Structures are given as structure tokens and as C-alpha cells.
Amino acid sequence: MAEERLATRTQFPASAESQKPRLKKAQEFPILEKQNWLIHLHYIRKDYEACKAVIKEQLQETQGLCEYAIYVQALIFRLEGNIQESLELFQSCAVLSPQCADNLKQVARSLFLLGKHKAAIEVYNEAAKLNQKDWEICHNLGVCYIYLKQFDKAHDQLHNALHLNRHDLTYIMLGKIHLLQGDLDKAIEIYKKAVEFSPENTELLTTLGLLYLQLGIYQKAFEHLGNALTYDPTNYKAILAAGSMMQTHGDFDVALTKYRVVACAVPESPPLWNNIGMCFFGKKKYVAAISCLKRANYLAPFDWKILYNLGLVHLTMQQYASAFHFVSAAINLQPKMGELFMLLAVALTNLEDPENARRAYAEAARLDRCNPLVNLNYAVLLYNQGERKGALAQFQEMEKKIRLLKDSPSLEFDAEMVEMAQKLGAALQVGEALVWTKPVKDTKSKHRSASACKAASLQQPLGSNQALGQAMSSAAAYRKLPSGAGATAQPTKPPSLPLEPEPAAGAQPTEAPAQIRETQ
């Protein structure tokens, strides 16, 4: 029965769809961006070898048409120092996507790194046509104009960048323009605005403190440097500047304590070893001073301030041949400074070469307009050679400078200078005209007089044994480059960030324009 029932069941016909022939699957075209996420992931992890392997595979699949892969490949080449190769790849990106301003910005940046500033400006101008509200383009144009020394155009571009978007970096570069033009007051105004905008930026606070320190406004300098150390107690630029202030006021032990902290952070800083050497000089530890200064000279052989100090220390130790060597080297690097010629003349006098000493004094008197010590030492040399008329002329010139300097509220005459001037005035029978109204300073406390004559006699003008002479100390050294900003979470092109200033190298911000910062 069961078999009969199965046989008699209704049979349904097969569906018409099943009888139709199956269509072939559509051909899959390669997706150009399918591995962009992996490329981005390797790049932000700084796994560049794996990143280059994925890029190579992606470019083979897409026949070299994947813009993002080429873009990241160019970034890696630039990180590895292959600037020319990166430029060519960025140009390929610009061909693939000519309306993308980011590609043009990267092309301009590579041209900037190759030193082709005019070409970089042209490309930045093309990028500006595509995006007129990009503050980075205006900022970078300003930095390129700084390298070309077209400060007016740089000033305008940086102001445009601030109008579009205020950034610390733009303020820094704008202040640098005023420093390159020698206008400290305007530079201070710019940095004050920058500090108001970003009060916790330790670099801005430190730079402003250094500018006040350079102008001798110690209270404001100490205030801003203290604020910088409040936000960053390990900021060695601010520590070095604070140590320099203490050194200026004769607190050598406290300054050395500060410098020990800095030495842990930047053990190969030339300004640091220069300042340590002059602290030892102030403590009359001359051998230690020469050792530190020679280390500074090894690290920065073309820094004339270090050579100046080496010459000063050797004069103090009566090593006149060595002093002549270092002072001559400093003059080759800084030929417009009268005090260097005065030190050279002191060395030549003690090397028994009065003719060349006289020529050096004459050049020093011609170049210097405010230091009475130049004319005082010159007058002593002429008096010793029996030329009373010439000595009297130099003595009167010294009196003119002193009268002009009396108006300075912070001026203090060196005791050694006062005594020598009084003795020479008495010998020339003109001492009554010289009136010393300023208090005499302790010879261990200041660093603003270059070299004075020995007070023992009028026989020879010798180098000064005072604490720092006019020791050239440097408040801040090099700083570490800040790390780049992190990339975004999704695979987008790393942005082209603005140009960034270089580290400072001395008691004031350096004059070298900035470099470009790479984001990682």
C-alpha cells in the first residue's frame, strides 16, 4: 500500500529558472585603494620595511596608479634622506590628482629641503590657488622668503597665516624676522603676544626670557624663565639661561649647580661648556677654565665667543702667545669688534711688539664707540712710548665715553679701571677733569668689561684679572627636535605641517631660519 501511495503522489514540474543556463560571474576589477588601510597601519607604526613591501605589491596590482601608495612611498624616501626620489614621487601624485593641494604642498616641501626656495615658492603659490584659506601655505611661504632674505614679503605672509589661524610656530618665525633685522623691541612685542596666546609654551617663555636677558632686564627675564621651568622643570634651555644670569651676578657656585643639570641633558653643548669654563675663571681656577673652554672650542670651532674667552683666560695666565693665537682666530670670525683688537694689542704689547700693538689699538679705537677701556689702554701704551700728545687725545676720548655712559642707571665702573685712569690722569696733569660719580664695582661680580690695565704701575697695559672680564657667556644651547604629531586613525594622507624653527645657539635665539617638521 505504501508503495502505491508513493507512486500515486502528485509530481510537480521542475521550475523554469532551474532550466535556464547560469550566467557567468562579472569580471572583478582591481580596487586601487583596497590595501591603503594596511599601508597606513605600517606607516604610523614606523614599520617602514613592511610598509614598502605592501606598497610594492599594491603598485604592481594597480600598475602604478595607486596615489596613496606613491604618496606614502615618497614620505618614507624623505625620512630616509632620499629627497630627490621623494620629489619625483610627489610630482607623480600631483599628476594623478592635479586638484589636490596636499600633493603640491609636499612637492614644495621637497624643493625647500633641496634648497630650491624660489621653486618652492612657485609651487606653494599654485597650491594657494587651490586652497586660499590654508594657513600652512602662507606660513611656509613666509619661511621660504626668510631664506631668500625678502623680509617684507615674509612678514606679510606670516601675518596672513596669523589672520587665517593663530599658531605658536608662526609667532616664532615672525619674531625671528625682527631678530634678523636687529629690532629687539618688535621681536619682544611679537613674543609677548605669542605668550598671551599660548601662556604654557615653554619655548616661547624661554625665548622671551632670553631677549630680556640680552637687554639686561633681569627681573622680567627671571620671571619668564621661572614660568618656563614651572611648566617644564627639565627645560634645559631655561636652566642654562637661569644659570647664565646667576653667573652674570657672580654666583658661580649656584650657576655650576644649574649647569650640572643641563650637562645630563645636553653633554655636548658648546655654550654649556663655555659657561662652565667662565665660572671656573670667575673662581680663579684657570686650568679648569681652559680645559672646559677647549672642550667647547672642540665642539664649536667657529664660535668666536669661545675663542674670545680662551684669549682672555690665557692673557690672565700671562700666556701671551696662546692668547694671541685664540684672539687672532676670533678676529677672523668677528672682524668688526673693537674689544677683540684691544685684547690682541694687550697680547702684542707683552710679546714686545709695540708697533703692531699700536696698530691693533688704533683699529680697536676706530671700531669701538662706547668702551672707555680701549682708549685707556691705548693711552697707556702711547704714554709708555713717550707720546704724551697722543696719550692725552686718547685720555680725552675716554672721558667723553665715560660722560655718555654716566647716564646708564646700571653702569658701574671697574675699580681697576678707575685707579689706572686716576694715575694716568695725574701723569698727564688732566686728572682733575675726570669725575667718577658712579659706584665702583667689585672685580669679582660683573662680566661687562673686556680688559683693563694693571693697576700696579704705568709700565705696561696688561690683561684684566677680574672675574669674568667681558666673558662671552651663552644662555641657551641646542634643543631637541619635537616629535611629530600622530597620524589619524583612518587611512588619510599625513598632513603637510608648517616649517619649524631650528634650535637656538647662544644667549639669544639663533638667526638660522626654520626647518620643516615631518609628521609621523
Automatic annotation (TrEMBL):
<keyword id="KW-0472">Membrane</keyword>
<dbReference type="Pfam" id="PF13432">
    <property type="entry name" value="TPR_16"/>
</dbReference>
<feature type="repeat" description="TPR">
    <location>
        <begin position="304"/>
        <end position="337"/>
    </location>
</feature>
<dbReference type="GO" id="GO:0034464">
    <property type="term" value="C:BBSome"/>
</dbReference>
<comment type="similarity">
    <text>Belongs to the BBS4 family.</text>
</comment>
<feature type="repeat" description="TPR">
    <location>
        <begin position="168"/>
        <end position="201"/>
    </location>
</feature>
<dbReference type="GO" id="GO:0007600">
    <property type="term" value="P:sensory perception"/>
</dbReference>
<keyword id="KW-0282">Flagellum</keyword>
<feature type="region of interest" description="Disordered">
    <location>
        <begin position="1"/>
        <end position="20"/>
    </location>
</feature>
<dbReference type="GO" id="GO:0031514">
    <property type="term" value="C:motile cilium"/>
</dbReference>
<keyword id="KW-0966">Cell projection</keyword>
<dbReference type="GO" id="GO:0060170">
    <property type="term" value="C:ciliary membrane"/>
</dbReference>
<dbReference type="GO" id="GO:0000226">
    <property type="term" value="P:microtubule cytoskeleton organization"/>
</dbReference>
<feature type="repeat" description="TPR">
    <location>
        <begin position="202"/>
        <end position="235"/>
    </location>
</feature>
<keyword id="KW-0970">Cilium biogenesis/degradation</keyword>
<dbReference type="GO" id="GO:0097730">
    <property type="term" value="C:non-motile cilium"/>
</dbReference>
<dbReference type="GO" id="GO:0015031">
    <property type="term" value="P:protein transport"/>
</dbReference>
<keyword id="KW-0653">Protein transport</keyword>
<dbReference type="GO" id="GO:0035869">
    <property type="term" value="C:ciliary transition zone"/>
</dbReference>
<dbReference type="GO" id="GO:0030030">
    <property type="term" value="P:cell projection organization"/>
</dbReference>
<feature type="compositionally biased region" description="Pro residues">
    <location>
        <begin position="492"/>
        <end position="501"/>
    </location>
</feature>
<feature type="compositionally biased region" description="Polar residues">
    <location>
        <begin position="8"/>
        <end position="18"/>
    </location>
</feature>
<keyword id="KW-0677">Repeat</keyword>
<keyword id="KW-0963">Cytoplasm</keyword>
<keyword id="KW-0813">Transport</keyword>
<dbReference type="Pfam" id="PF13181">
    <property type="entry name" value="TPR_8"/>
</dbReference>
<feature type="region of interest" description="Disordered">
    <location>
        <begin position="482"/>
        <end position="520"/>
    </location>
</feature>
<keyword id="KW-0802">TPR repeat</keyword>
<protein>
    <recommendedName>
        <fullName>BBSome complex member BBS4</fullName>
    </recommendedName>
</protein>
<dbReference type="GO" id="GO:0034451">
    <property type="term" value="C:centriolar satellite"/>
</dbReference>
<feature type="repeat" description="TPR">
    <location>
        <begin position="101"/>
        <end position="134"/>
    </location>
</feature>
<dbReference type="GO" id="GO:0061512">
    <property type="term" value="P:protein localization to cilium"/>
</dbReference>
<dbReference type="Pfam" id="PF13414">
    <property type="entry name" value="TPR_11"/>
</dbReference>
<keyword id="KW-1003">Cell membrane</keyword>
<keyword id="KW-0206">Cytoskeleton</keyword>
<keyword id="KW-0969">Cilium</keyword>
<dbReference type="InterPro" id="IPR011990">
    <property type="entry name" value="TPR-like_helical_dom_sf"/>
</dbReference>
<dbReference type="InterPro" id="IPR019734">
    <property type="entry name" value="TPR_rpt"/>
</dbReference>
